[in-house]
Amino acid sequence: LPENGGDTLFASLYAAYDTLSERMKHYLDGMTALHSGEEPFSHLFKFQREDGAKPWPESHHPIVRKHPDSGRPALFVDREFTKSIDDLPKEEARALLQFLFSHVERVDFQCRFKWQQNDIAIWDNRCALHHAIWDYWPQERSGRRISVVGEKPMAWNLASDAHQPVPTRLTR
């Protein structure tokens, strides 16, 4: 552990979805986005691929996913991996993603974990974001990480999952 810093922020993607306006929930219903590992792995984390290695993974996932265990909806976007929104013009997608990134990163959805020797943190990547605070240079922080292979994200559908009819006209 570094002498100072190195905390991890965790944010609830359930809370991020729950606090969206009903109009925004309906707008996002059924949308998908491209998630790509190319930029974070190659540029941010500086991982090197060997010549001839497969490209970093890319997948299209729902923007609002249904948690397979709780059945709850959660926003499924993050600044590092979500690159574009399918079927929207580039400028509209960029503006919507900037809003969603800022929204999921709100302080009132977060808790800050201050690491101590031999700590263990367990979280569910299907409904939580995590972000290491890199404020300890030139010291180092290291640990072991175990990840579980997850299932393919399922889309949340307002009409069938929430058992609410999709309104033809939204009101405030």
Q: Can you tell me about this structure?
A:
With 172 residues, this protein is an alpha+beta fold. It is 23% helix and 21% strand. It contains five helices and nine strands; from the N terminus they run βααβαββββαβββα. The strands form three sheets. Strands 7-1-8 form a three-stranded antiparallel sheet. Strand 4 and strand 5 form a beta hairpin. The radius of gyration is 18 Å and the shape is globular. The C terminus is likely disordered.
Strand order of the largest sheet: 7-1-8
Using only C-alpha atoms, the radius of gyration works out to 18 Å
> Separation of termini?
49 Å
**Structural class based on helices, strands and sheet pairing:** alpha+beta
Shape: globular
Strand fraction equals 15-25%
Largest sheet: 3 strands, antiparallel
In short:
This protein has helices at 13-18, 22-28, 38-44, 90-104, 158-161, and strands at residues 8-12, 32-36, 58-62, 64-66, 73-75, 82-85, 110-113, 128-132, 154-155. It has 172 residues and is α+β, with helices and mostly antiparallel strands.
What's the SSE blueprint?
Elements lengths: L7 E5 H6 L3 H7 L3 E5 L1 H7 L13 E5 L1 E3 L6 E3 L6 E4 L4 H15 L5 E4 L14 E5 L21 E2 L2 H4 L11
Antiparallel strand pairs: 1-7, 1-8, 2-3, 2-6, 4-5, 4-9
Core attributes:
21% strand, three-stranded antiparallel beta sheet, globular, alpha+beta, 172 residues
